[in-house]
Write a structure and sequence with these properties.
Elements (H helix, E strand, L loop, with lengths): L4 H5 L15 H23 L7 E4 L3 H15 L5 E4 L2 H9 L3 E2 L8 E6 L3 E3 L5 E2 L6 H9 L1 E9 L3 E2 L8 E5 L4 H10 L4 E4 L15 E6 L6 H9 L4 E4 L1 E2 L5 E5 L3 E6 L6 E6 L1
Parallel strand pairs: 1-2, 1-4, 2-3, 4-7, 5-8, 7-14
Antiparallel strand pairs: 5-6, 6-13, 9-11, 9-12, 10-11, 14-15, 15-16
Bound molecules: ribulose-5-phosphate (5RP).
Length: about 270
């Protein structure tokens, strides 16, 4: 139903009092705009924490892309860093911006990794990651980092992990139906094969498939992560328990920083 002139003169309600559904396009666009600004804000704050001489892990996704762009600006201004990217696309972007890439053979320890997330559990700082499909390299880079800064807009924090987001699970294509059955036995209520271009299954940079597993709210993330770690056919999964050292949550104007150390899980708020 659309609102005609009389409806508008009547506060959006037709003469009969029936509710009119006004198209939300403008409002939705505004919300998306706010979210983009928030992501850019969080990204900038984290990129500005990087210091000269550091080895930096570059995450994947839209928020991480803003962070890499900001690092590129800083490199153009003279910041000397080397980076390990978590995906081919981010590696290409970083190189195009003049950021020097390195690898684990040369630098097995990363000073700081900066990445987005799909969910951040308030308090524990456990994460779900991988809706962008880069979870394996993201976890390897985060695991090698002394400090792992997660950058999100305020749509990402949740009370319980799994509230809104399925757990992406990277599986070997060989025998994936058997892996699918094992994941169902672990309690996945709904499993979706991630789709790529042309109706084909999505393939990660490592040549694997992704099964998005809806476990519902996850009471014990570390326990489920352990079960997934031991599931044959699973290469990696998107539960990152106890890995984030810092989380930067951005709204349009306000920033919250949650830090695991020195006071574990204590939210520190400041307004920028
Ligand atoms: O885990 C990821 C990619 O594998 C991303 O960090 C996650 O999906 C968040 O993406 P965005 O910053 O675009 O919201």
């Amino acid at each position: 139903m659309s609102a005609d002139k009389d409806d508008k003169d009547n506060g959006g309600k037709p003469a009969g009092g029936e509710t009119v559904f006004v198209p939300l396009t403008a409002l939705a666009a505004e919300a998306v705009h706010d979210q983009v600004r928030a992501k850019r804000h969080a990204a900038r704050i984290a990129a500005d924490m990087v210091e000269a001489g550091m080895i930096v892990g570059l995450g994947t996704g839209s928020t991480a892309t803003f962070m890499v762009e900001r690092l590129g600006e800083r490199v153009r201004q003279g910041l000397a860093i080397k980076a390990i990217p978590t995906s081919n696309v981010i590696g290409q972007l970083a190189q195009s911006l003049g950021i020097v890439l390195t690898d684990f053979a040369t630098h097995p320890v990363i000073d700081v990794a900066i990445d987005g997330a799909d969910e951040v559990e308030r308090g524990s700082l456990h994460l779900i990651k991988g809706l962008g499909g880069a979870l394996l390299r993201e976890k390897m880079v985060a695991a090698a980092a002394k400090r792992f800064i997660v950058i999100v807009d305020d749509s990402k924090p949740v009370a319980t992990l799994g509230e809104r987001t399925p757990v992406p699970v990277e599986v070997v294509p060989f025998g994936w139906h058997a892996t699918h059955a094992r994941l169902e036995k672990l309690g996945a209520q709904r499993i979706t094969v991630r789709q790529g271009a042309g109706g084909m299954p999505f393939m990660t940079d490592n040549g694997n498939m992704v099964l998005d597993c809806d476990f519902g709210p996850i009471k014990d993330a570390a326990h489920l992560a352990g079960l997934l770690d031991r599931t044959v056919g699973v290469v990696e999964h998107g539960i990152f328990p106890d890995m984030a050292t810092d989380v930067v949550v951005a709204r349009e104007q306000e920033i919250e920083q949650w830090t695991r150390n020195p006071e574990p899980n204590s939210p520190k708020s400041r307004v920028n």
